[in-house]
UniProtKB/TrEMBL annotation:
CDD domains in UniProt: DPM1_like_bac
Ranges where the Glycosyltransferase 2-like domain occurs: 11-178
Protein name: Glycosyltransferase YkoT
Subcellular location: Membrane
Transmembrane segments: 241-262, 282-303
Keywords: Glycosyltransferase, Membrane, Transferase, Transmembrane, Transmembrane helix
Membrane topology listed for this record: Multi-pass membrane protein
Record keyword Transmembrane helix present: yes
Pfam family, one: Glycos_transf_2
Amino acid sequence: MTIHPQPIIGIVSPCYNEEEILYETSKQLQILLSQLIEKNIISDKSFIAFVDDGSHDKTWTIINELATKNNLVKGLKLAGNVGHQNALLGGLLTFNDDADALISIDADLQDDISVIEEMIVKYTEGTDVVYGVRKQRTTDTFFKRNTALLFYRMMKIMKVNILYNHADFRLCSSRVIKALSQFNEVNLFLRGIIPSIGFKNDVVYYDRLERMAGESKYPLKKMLTFAWNGITSFSTFPLKIVTRIGVIIFICCLFMSVYALYSLSMGNTVPGWVSTVLPMYFLGGIQLLCIGIAGEYIGKIYAEVKQRPRYIIDKRVD
Ligand code: UDP
Ligand code: MG
C-alpha cells in the first residue's frame, strides 16, 4: 500500500577532506536518482546534499562546482570541522524543509547505494525509519572489523540500545528529523538517539564495500572517542559497575580485617608489609578509576550545560 507516492528524497552526505572521491560519489548518486525519478518512484525535486565539514582540501570547491552545474546537487559548507555526527545533523536539519525523507550516507560510498530504492519503497509504504544493516564486512580490514565487533559488544554490555552492524546509513522521514531537532545534546550519538525516537521502523541488508579512494577519517583515537561518547551519552552503566566494584571490595576488606584480627588474637603477628601496602595501592587505583569515570560524566554535563551550537553554517549552494 502506498502512503507517500513519489516522495521528494534528499541524500545527505557529510564530507571531510573527500576531494578524491566526490566526483565519483556524485556521479553514482546522480545516476541512481535519475533512474528512480524516471521510474516514477521519487519526485524530480529529489536531490543530493553534500555537507563540507570544514575540509582543508578542495572538497568545497568541488561541491560548489557540482551544485552550480547540476540541479540534482546542493551543498552546505560548515564554518569549521565539527565531526561526522554533527556535520550529518547540520545537513539533516538544514535540508529537512526541502524533502519528505532524507537518506544519510558516507561520502566514500562504502554503503551499497543499490539498497536505496528498497529504503524508499519502505518509506512510501509508511515506514518512518529504514536502517541500512551490513550483512558482512569482509572488505573491511581485520583491524576495523574487530574493533567494530568490540564496539557493538561493548554497547550491548553497557546497555546502549543500538542496532547491530548499523552505521549512519539510513532513511528518516521528515517527522523523524523534526523530532531529532528537539534533541539538544552536544555529545551527539545518532545511532542511539534515532532508535529512541520511536515511530515505525524497518531494516534493509547490504554488503559493506571498500572505500573507493582516500583514507578512513576515523583513526583509532576518533573511534575510541566515538565509542566512549556512545556509552557515556546513553548509559550510566559504567557508574553502576564502579559502585558494584566498590561494594565487592568493601566486603573483601571486611573479611580481610576479620582474618587479620583473628591472626592477631592467635598471636601470629603478620609481617605486615604486603598486606598493608598492597591494599593501599589497590584501593587507591580503584578510587582514581571511580573519580575518573564520574569526572567523564561531569565533563559531559559541562558540555551540555553550555549549550553551544553544534555546527555553524558558512554558506549554502543549491
Ligand atoms: N567525516 C566528517 N567529519 C569528520 C570525519 C569524517 O564529515 O570529522 C565524514 C567522512 O567524510 C565520511 C564519513 O564521515 O563521509 C565517514 O567517515 P570515514 O569513511 O572516514 O569513516 P569509516 O568508514 O572509516 O568509519
Ligand atoms: Mg568510510
